[in-house]
Amino acid sequence: MFRFIVRRLLQMVLAFFGTTLIVYALMFAGQGDPIQALAGERPVTAAQRAYLTEKYHLDATGVGGFFYRYFDYISNLLRGDLGESLTGRSIGDILAAAWPVTIRLALIAIAVAVVFGVTAGVLAGIRRASIFDNATLLLTLLVLGIPTIVLAPLAQYFLGVRWQLFPPTAGADPDFFALLLPGIVLGSLSLATALRLTRTSVAENLRADYVRTARSKGLPNRRVVSVHVLRNSLIPVITFLGVEVGNLMSGAIITEGVFNIPGVGFNLFRGIRTEDGPLVVGIVSVLVVVYLVSNLVVDILYAVLDPRIRYE
Amino acid sequence: MRVRRLAAWTALPLAVTLGLVACGSGGDGGSGESDPNAAVRIEIAEPQHLVPTNTNETSGSQVLAALFSPLVDYDEAHKPYEVAAESITSEDNTTWTIKLKDGYTFHNGEAVTADSYIDAWNYGAYAPNGQNSSYFFEKIAGYDDLQGESPKAETLSGLKKVDDLTFTVALSQPYSEFKAMLGYTAFYPLPKAAFSAPGTLAEGYEQAPIGQGPFKMKGTWQHDAKVEVERYDAFPGEQPKVAGVEFRIYQQLTAAYADVLSDNLDVIKTIPTENLSTADTDLGDRFLQSPASSLHFLAFPTFQDEFSNPDVRKAISMAIDRDEITRSIFKDSQQPARSFVSPAVAGYRENTVGAAGEFDPAKAKTLYQAAGGPSKITLSYNGDGGHKDWIDATCNQLKANLGVDCVGSAEPKFADLLTKVKDKQPIGLFRLGWVMDYPSMENYLGPLYSSNGSSNYYGYRNPDFDRLLAEGAKAPSEEEAIKKYQEAEDLLAEDLPVVPLRFGQNNFGHSTKVKSVEMDLFDRINLVKIEAIK
């Protein structure tokens, strides 16, 4: 197990540098005129252009310029300096301010997906073809069919503005309640998928031999479901949720925008809009780490859930 | 068990709702009297900078308007009057004497002196400091010596201190409307505390700027979240009617709009386009409009043969139904334009474009064919600005009314459009907009149409026009300057290098908790006028 983790960590270092290189190259290739992008439609003076060009090495172009700027970036990164955004703010500071709120949001979303998705999935799996099962099927299809870009403003309008059940926006330093609605919106898609996955896998496992054995031993139904069936049914769900943690953090661009939460997605969106290469690369690098770590956690959880799975 | 937990989940929001409703009705039920102890919340975007000479977008300048008091402000007729200045005078339009009012202090207690202005302006004009608004100082003598990578001088030779409250500004050329320039953000003073050494801005000044205005910082600039200011009691000018302002930072206007609807935010400065059609019913008389300084137009590449004939340009202008497009596409959020300068400046006259501004398809077609206009017209625009709808509508009108083939061609970003325009590539007509730097006719004419204008991308050259502008700058009084500028504007109507299409308009709104919400010419909420309702 220990060797497995060490090997995975070493792979993560490689994967990290590989992705930063690719993302940096993409941003570099797609970069038009970041100085004009920053100024919007206002004229940029020659003095201002010269100042920014020199400060951010924007005159280094072509293949040589790319490697010059990439190695400059990486060597600063290794010293723990993520660089400065085009407005002169330290990207490290931006990320330090953005991550906590995004993590809280993602945790609420995951909690919503697990609590409601897995519970309802188990219920639907046990009572297959019941009204509850059919109702959840219909509901999840509906949720999966509505993209967040529609769902988020609708939820905000009805639950926030019209009926005033929730605050319509969360702001920079939100309490748990203010994050609840964005969390539910963000988690609803994962909720629907988790529900479908749990339901199928519970329904399948209920017909497995070991369940019949357990029942014939005379175990109470509650124990059969919660220990034998659920534990085995969770493997696909855990796989899904592990990947979803990364998705929720990077995919919160729309939700964070609609509910005005200055998190990672919010900053990523701004970075892309203003062609702020270093900001985008910084955020994406951290996201890559999140994906890698959550995948590692999932792999370790497999071993916990199913003793037959071992790592050497 | 699970059912009970679900019940608890729904009970929580319900309880909070009741609380909210109770609070809401309490607030509404007030007498509408002003509450001087309340703070108001105003929407902004994340400012790019909070240093006066580095701030040229509306969010930053809105915050600075709270922290600083300008030398001049503008009256109903858009003419400047003194605020922090006692008098601003000149005999020859070249050397201006600025006397400051006594009694102004910075928020750290430091007295405002002539040096506060001189130091700030020198810092702003010095090219290696890379200040966004450095071009505001280009009219001052010695500006050129501060440019380049290693400038010859560090201070503007045109700025001279006379005594503690008086200084003179020598311009490199006479300019009759220098006083009108001084109302903008770039001309605020800076305290000694802003500099760590002469000419070096102290690190961290930007996080909590010290000004001499009606409000002082409360804490520091909380990036992406808010900037809070509170009333500065030692301010000698007109005191604001609220205890403080929270500038709340939004990335998306739709979020701010939802907050205004539910009284979680007091003022939204721009109502998002998608909500414009419902704003009237949503907000009622809390939906407000005021003229903005922006002008939107279609420019001709007059250096190309096919557009070199003014009659071709006039025919195209006559074939466009501005009123229809403003109504159906912009839902009256902008106003049709038939002049080259905005109603936001003194000297504006309606309909200076004349006959070419009237929608007359029959006449347009005859004129177009007689002048031998091209059979295919391209309208270029930037795809990142929401321009597709009106460009397509304009194209359809040109097709129908002139019998030509017309296509809209999108460049991905504004920078791409500008690059092609600067390189004089054949991209047909192109859209541009203009927002004034200071309320003066000259600012709408000089940069855009004079032979060496910084934003003259259409190759327009008219020596008479240049001469009239120069005469206007030398005119002994503002009235006479305006006369010259109006003559210059009439020349533009004859040549029509661009087709003015629309004037911008501020569409803003406020919650039920504030009143007296006004917007100034620089798209800023007037923070001295706004009141909170008890």
TrEMBL record, chain A:
<keyword id="KW-0812">Transmembrane</keyword>
<comment type="similarity">
    <text>Belongs to the binding-protein-dependent transport system permease family.</text>
</comment>
<keyword id="KW-0813">Transport</keyword>
<dbReference type="InterPro" id="IPR000515">
    <property type="entry name" value="MetI-like"/>
</dbReference>
<feature type="transmembrane region" description="Helical">
    <location>
        <begin position="179"/>
        <end position="197"/>
    </location>
</feature>
<dbReference type="InterPro" id="IPR035906">
    <property type="entry name" value="MetI-like_sf"/>
</dbReference>
<feature type="transmembrane region" description="Helical">
    <location>
        <begin position="233"/>
        <end position="259"/>
    </location>
</feature>
<feature type="transmembrane region" description="Helical">
    <location>
        <begin position="138"/>
        <end position="159"/>
    </location>
</feature>
<keyword id="KW-0472">Membrane</keyword>
<keyword id="KW-1003">Cell membrane</keyword>
<protein>
    <submittedName>
        <fullName>ABC transporter permease</fullName>
    </submittedName>
</protein>
<feature type="transmembrane region" description="Helical">
    <location>
        <begin position="279"/>
        <end position="305"/>
    </location>
</feature>
<feature type="transmembrane region" description="Helical">
    <location>
        <begin position="105"/>
        <end position="126"/>
    </location>
</feature>
<keyword id="KW-1133">Transmembrane helix</keyword>
<dbReference type="Pfam" id="PF00528">
    <property type="entry name" value="BPD_transp_1"/>
</dbReference>
<feature type="transmembrane region" description="Helical">
    <location>
        <begin position="12"/>
        <end position="30"/>
    </location>
</feature>
<feature type="domain" description="ABC transmembrane type-1">
    <location>
        <begin position="99"/>
        <end position="302"/>
    </location>
</feature>
Automatic annotation (TrEMBL), chain B:
<dbReference type="InterPro" id="IPR030678">
    <property type="entry name" value="Peptide/Ni-bd"/>
</dbReference>
<keyword id="KW-0732">Signal</keyword>
<feature type="signal peptide">
    <location>
        <begin position="1"/>
        <end position="22"/>
    </location>
</feature>
<protein>
    <submittedName>
        <fullName>Peptide ABC transporter DppA</fullName>
    </submittedName>
</protein>
<dbReference type="InterPro" id="IPR000914">
    <property type="entry name" value="SBP_5_dom"/>
</dbReference>
<dbReference type="InterPro" id="IPR039424">
    <property type="entry name" value="SBP_5"/>
</dbReference>
<feature type="domain" description="Solute-binding protein family 5">
    <location>
        <begin position="81"/>
        <end position="455"/>
    </location>
</feature>
<dbReference type="Pfam" id="PF00496">
    <property type="entry name" value="SBP_bac_5"/>
</dbReference>
